[in-house]
Specification:
Blueprint: H1 2-7, H2 17-27, E1 31-33, E2 40-42, H3 44-63, E3 67-68, E4 74-76, H4 77-80, H5 84-90, E5 95-100, E6 103-111, H6 116-126, E7 135-144, E8 158-168, H7 171-192, E9 198-201, E10 213-220, E11 226-236, H8 238-242, E12 246-248, E13 254-256, E14 258-265, H9 267-276, E15 293-297, H10 304-320, E16 325-327, H11 335-344, E17 349-353, H12 355-360, E18 362-367, E19 378-381, H13 385-410, E20 412-414, H14 418-427, E21 431-436, H15 440-450, E22 453-458, E23 477-482
Parallel strand pairs: 3-7, 15-16, 15-17, 20-21
Antiparallel strand pairs: 1-2, 4-6, 5-6, 7-8, 8-14, 9-10, 9-22, 10-11, 11-14, 12-13, 17-18, 18-19, 21-23, 22-23
Helix pairs in contact: 3-7
Length: about 475
C-alpha cells in the first residue's frame, strides 16, 4: 500500500505550487500535521536538516564572539506591557497562560513571541559598568505566535529559531553589530543553503516593533513571492530606557546601553524547498542535506549477499571520508521505486551498485539536481569514487546557487511608472525595483491596491537613481517590492 501511495506523482510545481509544497513537505518526511491547530511535528529527516543548518549558523555566530544562553519561555504581562509599541506589534499573536493546575495565576504569562522584554529585564541586573559591555548573547529556542493562517515551516503557531540580543556602549558599536550579523546571515544563507538574497533596510512601516533600524535579507521563491529570510535590528536605546538597562561609563556618567537583536527561523527550511525543489520533490544543498549520498544495491537472488556487502563497504568508505551516506536495504521495494523515493527526499548523489558493477570494479553515480533529461549516469572506478563524489557535491552546491541566482535575476524587473509596476505584479510577480521617494501612506496604498510590500531598500545602491516610479519626485534610492509570504 505504501509503495503504491508513494508512486503517485506530486502536484505540479508550476501549476499548483501551494499543493506541491505541502505534498513535498509531508511525503519527503520533513514534517507532519498534528491535532493542535497551527502546529507541526518536525520529523527526524526534517529535524536533521534543521540541525545541519543550525550547526553551520551556530559556528558562525560563535566565531563572531557570541555565546549561547537560554532564557525563560514565559513573559509576565506587566513586563511585556512596559513597552507599548512592542506589545501592540505582537498582541494579536500572543498566547497566554492564565492558570496553573486548578489555580488562577495572579498575573497572566505570555508565551514568548520574542524575548526583548524578558531578556531586557535580566540585562538590567547584569550590567552595571562599561566593563560589563559588550554583552553578546544568542539563544536557540522555540517561540509562539498564534497565527490565523498557517503553512508548514513558513508560518506556524510554534516554531524554532535563534535570537541574538546584544548590548553596547555606543550607537556606532550597536550599528556595527547589526550590520555584522546581517552579513553573517547573508553569507550563511548563500553559502550553506545556496539561496541568493538581497540585503537591505526595512522602511519605517515595515521595521520591527520598537526598533530604531531594521535590516533584512530577502529571497525570491520559485512562485515569484518574496520571503524574509532573516532580520537584524538596531534597537537603539528604546528598550534600554524601558527596562532601565544602564551602565557607569569611563567618564563616570550613567548611561543607557545601545541594543541589537537578530534572528532566523525554521522558515528557512521552507525556503530551501521552494527555491530548489522540482516536480520530483526536494533538491537539497549538499552542505546541509541529511544524507549526501544514498547507496542503492541492485540485488539479484544469486548475488544478494555480495551486493549488500559491497554496498555497506562503499557506505563505510564514504562515511570515513566525511560524507553523510546511507544504504537503502529495503528488499520489499524495487530499485526504480527507491530511485524515485530518494529523488523525492532530495539526496544530492545516488550511488547504484549491482553484480555487473562489482565485476567491473565500478560504481554508477547520478546527480539529483539536474533535470531528468540531463541525468546521465556516470560510471567511475571504485578507486575514483571518493574524489568524484567530493567533486560532485561541490559542483552541485555551486550549480544550485547559480540556478537560483539566475532565476532571481530573470524575475527582477525594473520599473519607471506605477502602471508598469502593477502590470508586473499582477502578471509576472518577482521582485519589482524602482526609484523610491514615497511615504508610509504611499506604501499603504500600493499594498492595498496590489498586495505588494516594500521588501527593502538595498544597501548596494546605483550611482544615479532618477525619479520615483510612484510619486514622480526626485529619489535618493531604489527599493525592492514584491508580494510576500
Amino acid at each position: 500500500m505504501a509503495q503504491k501511495e508513494y508512486a503517485q506523482k506530486l502536484a505540479s510545481k508550476s501549476s499548483d505550487f501551494s499543493q506541491w509544497y505541502v505534498e513535498v513537505v509531508v511525503r519527503a518526511g520533513l514534517a507532519d500535521y498534528t491535532d493542535i491547530k497551527g502546529c507541526m511535528v518536525i520529523r527526524p529527516y526534517g529535524y536533521t536538516l534543521w540541525e545541519n543548518m543550525r550547526d553551520a549558523l551556530d559556528k558562525r555566530i560563535k566565531a563572531t564572539g557570541h555565546e549561547n544562553a537560554y532564557f525563560p519561555l514565559f513573559v509576565p504581562e506587566s513586563l511585556l506591557k512596559l513597552e507599548a509599541e512592542h506589545v501592540q506589534g505582537f498582541a494579536p499573536e500572543c498566547a497566554w497562560v492564565t492558570r496553573a493546575g486548578n489555580d488562577k495565576l495572579e498575573e497572566p504569562l505570555a508565551i514568548r513571541p520574542t524575548s526583548e522584554a524578558i531578556i531586557g529585564s535580566i540585562y538590567a541586573k547584569w550590567i552595571q559598568s562599561y566593563r560589563d559591555l559588550p554583552v553578546l548573547i544568542n539563544q536557540w529556542a522555540n517561540v509562539v505566535r498564534w497565527e490565523k493562517r498557517t503553512r508548514l515551516f513558513l508560518r506556524t503557531s510554534e516554531f524554532l529559531w535563534q535570537e541574538g540580543h546584544t548590548c553596547h556602549r555606543t550607537f556606532d558599536e550597536a550599528q556595527e553589530e547589526t550590520l555584522r550579523m546581517l552579513g553573517v546571515y547573508r553569507e550563511f544563507i548563500e553559502t550553506e543553503l545556496a539561496i541568493p538574497v538581497i540585503v537591505g533596510q526595512k522602511s519605517e512601516s515595515e521595521k520591527f516593533a520598537g526598533a530604531q533600524l531594521t535590516y533584512t535579507v530577502e529571497a525570491l521563491m520559485a512562485d515569484g513571492l518574496a520571503l524574509q529570510a532573516g532580520t537584524s535590528h538596531n534597537l537603539g536605546q528604546h528598550f534600554a530606557k524601558v527596562f532601565d538597562i544602564k551602565f557607569l561609563d569611563e567618564d563616570n556618567v550613567e548611561k543607557h546601553v545601545w541594543q541589537t537583536s537578530w534572528g532566523v527561523s525554521t522558515r528557512l527550511v521552507g525556503a530551501i524547498i521552494m527555491v530548489h525543489g522540482d516536480d520530483a520533490g526536494l533538491t537539497l544543498p549538499p552542505r546541509v542535506a541529511p544524507v549526501q549520498a544514498i547507496v542503492i544495491p541492485v540485488i539479484t537472488t544469486e548475488h544478494k549477499a555480495a551486493v549488500l556487502e559491497k554496498a555497506e563497504a562503499l557506505r563505510a568508505a564514504l562515511v570515513e571520508a566525511g560524507v553523510r551516506a546511507k544504504v537503502d536495504r529495503d528488499e520489499s521495494k524495487s530499485p526504480g521505486w527507491k530511485f524515485n523515493e530518494w529523488d523525492l527526499r532530495g539526496v544530492p548523489v545516488r550511488l547504484e551498485i549491482g553484480p555487473k558493477d562489482i565485476a567491473k570494479g565500478q560504481v554508477c553515480l547520478v546527480r539529483r539536481d539536474l533535470p531528468d533529461r540531463a541525468k546521465k549516469k556516470m560510471f567511475v572506478g571504485e578507486d575514483e569514487m571518493l574524489p568524484t563524489i567530493r567533486r560532485l557535491l561541490e559542483e552541485i552546491q555551486s550549480a544550485m546557487f547559480e540556478r537560483a541566482r539566475e532565476f532571481r535575476d530573470r524575475n527582477t524587473h525594473a520599473v519607471s511608472s506605477y502602471e508598469q509596476f502593477r502590470e508586473i505584479i499582477e502578471t509576472r510577480r518577482g521582485f519589482v525595483v524602482g526609484a523610491w521617494a514615497g511615504t508610509a501612506e504611499d506604501e499603504a496604498k500600493i499594498k492595498e491596491e496590489t498586495k505588494a510590500t516594500l521588501r527593502c531598500i538595498p544597501l548596494a545602491q546605483p550611482e544615479t537613481v532618477g525619479n520615483c516610479f510612484f510619486t514622480g519626485k526626485s529619489a535618493q534610492h531604489i527599493a525592492y517590492f514584491a508580494r510576500a509570504y
